[in-house]
Amino acid sequence: RSMDALEARLVPGTEAAVTNPFFSPDGESVGFYDDGQLRRISISGGGAVVVGAATNPFGVSWERDNTILFGQPQGIMRVSANGGMPELVIKANEGEQMHGPQLLPDGDSVLFSVTTAGGPTRWDQAQIVVQSLRSGERKVVLRGGSDARYVPSGQLVYAVSDTLLAIA
Predict the structure, then answer these.
(1) Is residue 112 within 8 Å of residue 141, measured between CB atoms?
(2) By the 8 A CB rule, do 147 and 159 touch?
(3) In this structure, are residues 136 and 155 in contact, taking their beta carbons and an 8 Å threshold?
(4) Do 110 and 130 form a contact (C-beta atoms < 8 A)?
């Protein structure tokens, strides 16, 4: 069945209390976190496939190169959507929390939020950054905001408190 229907429906095989849903680039599969693992399943149902071990992830994205990026306490991890051992690709510095990684179209740069603040407003105090996987160079794109996503039209969409913003 396709996802173009207007009524909500359960994806068979996801009856447990799953969290952190994310779609494959083609929209035919959905990934999620359940019981210490990232898993993926076809939207038409079937058996869930284990992608890799994780603690409750800090944002997840399934990239066009068939890898999955996700935040963990130690930094940004990457694993093949086909399954495997997650690898640390961007190490968090002391006191940093990283959230919401997205691989940019150049295949090298990762967009994500990083904060050293604590408390309920920590993400409103975050920086939105881009970091090169090859060189490790990190550039601050915006100060104050989180959950940034690059959209193909050339905008960056992000959140501050309960407001959604976009910038070219």
Answers:
(1) no
(2) yes
(3) no
(4) yes
pLDDT at 72: 97
Is residue 86 left, alpha or beta, with left meaning phi > 0 and alpha meaning psi from -120 to 50?
A: beta
Strand order across the beta sheet in which 146-150 lies: 146-150, 156-160, 163-167
DSSP secondary structure, 32-78, as one string = EEETTEEEEEETT----EEEEE-SS-S-EEE-TTSEEEEEETTEEEE
Tokens standing for 64? 């066009």
- Residues facing 3 on adjacent strands: none
- What was the pLDDT predicted at 73? 95
What does the pLDDT read at residue 20?
86
Please compute the mean of the pLDDT values over residues 108-133 and round it to a whole number.
95
Residues ≥6 apart with Cβ < 8 Å to 2: 43
Instruction: Report residue 3's pLDDT band, with 50, 70 and 90 as the boundaries.
Output: low
In the chain, DSSP finds a helix count (H) and a strand count (E) of 0, 15
pTM (2 d.p.): 0.90
28 vs 3: CA distance, rounded Å: 9
β-strand partners of 167 = 156
d(CA 25, CA 92): 27
